[in-house]
Amino acid sequence: GIQVEQSPPDLILQEGANSTLRCNFSDSVNNLQWFHQNPWGQLINLFYIPSGTKQNGRLSATTVATERYSLLYISSSQTTDSGVYFCAVGYSGNTPLVFGKGTRLSVIA
Amino acid sequence: ETGVTQTPRHLVMGMTNKKSLKCEQHLGHNAMYWYKQSAKKPLELMFVYSLEERVENNSVPSRFSPECPNSSHLFLHLHTLQPEDSALYLCASSHLLGGSGELFFGEGSRLTVL
Question: Taking all residues of chain B, what is their mean pLDDT, rounded to a whole number?
Answer without folding.
Answer: 91
